[in-house]
Structures are given as C-alpha cells and as structure tokens.
Amino acid sequence: MIVLFSGSLHILMLPWFAFGHLLPFLELAKSLARKGHHISFLTTPRNVARLPTIPRPLTPFINFIEIPLPQIKHLPENAEAMVDLPSANLHPYLSKAFDNFEQKLSDLIQTKQISSLDCILFDYAAH
C-alpha cells in the first residue's frame, strides 16, 4: 500500500543514546526538514549539546526536546550516551534509564506539549 501525503508532517524522533544512532537520526531529521516537515527530536541535554549545529535554514523545522535522563543506580553521573560509559557492563543501566522516558514521553503527548504528531520514529526498544 502506498500512502501519498501532501503537506508537512510533524515527526517525533527518539533515537537510542549512542552516537551511531543519534547522528544518523539527525541526518534523517535534516533531510525531512528540507522537505518542509517538522521534527521534534527527543534526547538528553548533554546529547543535544554534543550534536552538530543545524544549518540555519532548517532551524525552524527541527525542535530539540531535552529531557534529563533519570538517575539510575550504578549509572555514572552525567552518563547520557554509550560513549559516556567506562565499561560494557554498564549498558543495561543506560537501557533502564532510557526505558524511564516512556512516562515522560506519554506525559508530553497527553499534555499537548508535543501536539499534532503524525508519527514517532524510534530505533531501539530497551526492554
């Protein structure tokens, strides 16, 4: 089935907290923004700060939504991406923190802080 849509979409993007995911999602966001679609890109404040700058013509189309990562026992302070973890045995704790975004995302949508969504793109389901 092919669905044709004329007009712009509002797309929420929630990439996994690894730069091998964040950077390709950002490239996809820029590509979609060039076509006039509006992107809400959800990640942590530290991850947003480390992403490349968005070209000025695309800034009206890409909105970064920064949500602090919940503190999880055993997860190092300021660890907001895989690159921040000193060892692989800490990966499950980052996954658990990622899972805690479920309620925050639900709250954002239900309170209309993110409104008129057409779709949600994510690439990782932690648990």
Automatic annotation (TrEMBL):
The name under which this protein is listed is Uncharacterized protein
- The superkingdom listed in its UniProt entry is Eukaryota
Q: Listed GO molecular functions?
A: UDP-glucosyltransferase activity
